[in-house]
Design goal:
The chain has 565 residues and is an alpha/beta fold. It has 18 helices and 28 strands. The strands form six sheets. It has an eight-stranded mixed beta sheet with strand order 7-6-5-3-4-8-9-20, sandwiched between helices. Strands 17, 18, 19, 21, 22 and 23 form a six-stranded antiparallel beta sheet that branches. Helix 2 runs antiparallel to helix 3 (55-71), helix 10 (234-247) packs across helix 11 (267-279) and helix 13 crosses helix 14 (343-353). The chain is globular.
Amino acid sequence: MADPLIDRPWLASYAPGVPADVDVPDRPLTALLDRAVAEHGPSTALDFMGSTTTYAQLARQVARAAEALRRLGVRPGDRVAIVLPNCPQHVVAFYAVLRLGGVVVEHNPLYTADELAAQLADSGARVAVVWEKTAAAVDSVRARTAVETVLTVDLSAALPLGKRLALRLPVAKARRTREQLRAPVPAGSRSWERLVAAAAELDPATPLPAADDPALLQYTGGTTGTPRGAVLTHRNLAANAEQSAAWVPGLRVGQETFFGVLPIFHAYGLTLCLTAAVRLAACVVLLPRFDVDTFLAAAKRRPPTFLPGVPGIYDRLADAVEERGADLSSIRFAISGAMSLPPATVERWEKLTGGLLVEGYGMTETSPITIGNPISAQRRPGTVGVPFPSTRVRIVDPEDPSVERPRGEAGELLVQGPQVFAGYWQRPAETAQALLPGGWIRTGDIAVMDEDGFVRIVDRIKELIITGGFNVYPSEVEDVLRRHEGVHDAAVVGLRDASGNELVAAAVQPAEGHELDLDALRSWCRERLAGYKTPRRIVAVADLPRSQVGKVLRRQVRERLTREG
């Protein structure tokens, strides 16, 4: 029998109480909600601007919503689009679709009509549960999709009674709030709230989906090309919920308060702000978008204990602690993902809050989390950590993934585990390229693993810059630029010249109160980087294009710099 510390050296760095492997029950994802209801029915499941829903109430709402969707013709395997921000209706719709054996298709409600059209057409969804403010965009592209029924969601319906009544006041503040939450809906659409309220509860004898049935289509690849639907099964999502809960052994079932500031239409937010929270029967405080004032008001009402986020969120909240004296000491654990977490952010957050902040890594195709820093003194800021329980990783030659790279040498990161997806929706060729024999997925990320199993992400293969025959990793150059006191953030890309060679170019966002001297900044880089890595072109920009979770979109930066010559 192989020595587990040789096969998986990272196990020695796990926090006390974290298992080497997790047990993934052979049941659908809805079983997590069923268990939370059975064991913690009276406990608060959701808090939305002060309006609360217990687990027992949530289960009844899900049963009614499932019956309403069944009457609309939703059957096992049917795709149902959800185009909503974080709100109770989103959670209810998500579990209702899954209860019927349907497949949830998550969409960003801030997408343009064309972006939504491409995804809706690809999934073949016939029913769409849509925020009122997005309904017109969905309706305008229905002819290009299979959508037959649009169910519109009124976000204000989930507010506490007092806040709903206040929205009717003839004052400017009430008008502005109404405009943020509501919009006129297209003719022919139907009210989600009225539909669910009028429905009976689904017959409990209705067959459950199987653990290996598709549960979610999550579109990915938008930063590098046309989005593809990653097919995640009930088992994939349940496994990652189990892994995430196990990774933080200090979390107590039925006693935690998760703050849902990450969008649950994104894989990262869906797992850490919804499925893992339900696995722990936690209270989820849902925020439609991240706003410091709204966050602090909610934290005063219901102090958070666990906060999944991205670096920018932690920086802005740390500012609030320093500048306003906000108390965030209730947050014992915080996990950052989606982009590199600066060690300085970790040090500042932990000093100001007394809680732990660690970085993790994942991708939509892995439900999404595969690697995390230990929730202990063993953590290593600057790395993304070690593989999760039941997860294995390899570093291989990007040109020939059958060739393993030695420890300490950069190569493509491969991942294997129960959270790895079933493939891309209706794209067998792309699935075959991504999934290797044995269930290993090619991440497309260049990484280095040390002798203890800690992983450092170097860059994306597709974003690698080759200039004069030399490889340049954008992240390395960006790290140097960000260390300059006058730079708030930076994005580095390759631009092709007339000869076909790539030139290193950088878009930099100046720090507040600084006016950048670009020649001096280039000299700063030359002192810290090899000549071929130093940006030949540096452009100051007011802001950098970002995804919904704050990740800089290098593709859009490249397009802008190319247009501007």
